[in-house]
Fold:
Amino acid sequence: MIRLILAAAAVLIAALAGYVGYRSWTFTPPAPRDAPAIPDTRAYEIDISAAAMHLAEAIQFRTITLMDEEEDTGAFEDLHAWMQARYPAFHEVARRETVNDLSLLYTWPGADAAQPPIVLLAHQDVVPVPDDTRAAWGVDPFAGIIEQDAVWGRGAMDDKGSLVALLEAAEFLAARGWRPERTIIFAFGHDEEIGGPRGAARMAALLAQRGVRAWFVLDEGMAAIDPHPITGAPVAMIGLSERGAGIMRVRAVSQPGHASMPERETAVSLLAEAVDRIHAMPIERRLEGGPAIDMMRALGPELGVMDRVALANEWMFGPIIHERFSANTAAAALLGTTVAPTVIRGGDHAGILPGEAIALINFRIHPRDHADDLMQRAQNAMSGMEGVTLEWDSPPLAASPVSSATSASYALIAGVSRAVLPQAPVAPGLVLAGTDARHYAGMAENVYRYQPILLSPEDLDMPHGVNERMTLDNFERMIRFYIGIMETGAAP
Structure:
């Protein structure tokens, strides 16, 4: 009997090892589409000094996001005039429209109107530079300084770098007499930094009203990271989706009065417990159900044997994977919705019990999750508590749809990226912030978010931060990338 048990156990162990080995061996990305031949844009003569000067000039226009429609629009209007003067060949071949006065929509007609167009995005607006950070800047943030092989200033990376690189690429092609077979649409919003309600949202709606169904949309959002936290080497990340967002308002009420005679529970103590329960409530965290699993498959050839075995068999090694991911906040955010208490308001006197205390909890919603389900989980976490109510502070924003990592358009973007960044293998990813791209999901086959700039983890703090800059190497790479996207994606 013992021999039979041992034999059966050996068979089970062998079968399990075989299953784990098979899943590890086959943990690879799906076979790619036949990518088109990618031109070597590195052979093109690009005057990067002149292009850098143009980016520096664009930075000098203080196109800070307008919070009120009545604010002065002069900086945006001056930028528009500069664009027309600086890029004459492009403006000669493309039809220019203004949307809500300040957003710009360009259409470069293709010879074959039956082909779905390409839509390329960038935004004109930038975030302000707070007065208390000015001293930390090495240069005037709106002077457009070129030094240390970089263009410095607010918007250099977010997102005038993309805006000017797109214009440089289009001007280069137009000046050479190149004409697209497939129509190319350029959409330059003016309020991305506050969600794009008057810019991208309106332009996307206008294109949809016209019956435009794009082949793909490409915007900012992800880049090439060196080192990537998973591989320890450069990886070019193409964003397939971006997380949603919601602010949950937690309100606790109790009997107000003097602090010398408190009730068993005060509004503040109730609120503290409620916030703690919500912060700790179960959230599903796994690779499946979002871009993370596609990213891991794409990076499979770059991983060590043990990492590959673990990632291919999450059902067995899930705790190990989650522990490793949790050590890096950006990696952990790929696995599920994040929950971050950010604001607490209660009493204003140490000797008085407030009758009400309020907290705000920031949810960044994973594509796997829905706001209604998250609210229900939070309500379940409050089971047994009285005097606490929950509601969304404003309607939550759902995560954007997950685009394909096996489409011909993804293969195009990946192929052009490899041409300008051969040292960085390409993998799909999840954008942790928000972009204008989410507004275009309903009028395109796929929506992607990627700039071919090589950044260190420390560089990721530059957008919205101090000493924002675009290196000349990265800027030249962007121009060549956009030339390749247009020349290949809309080839005659």
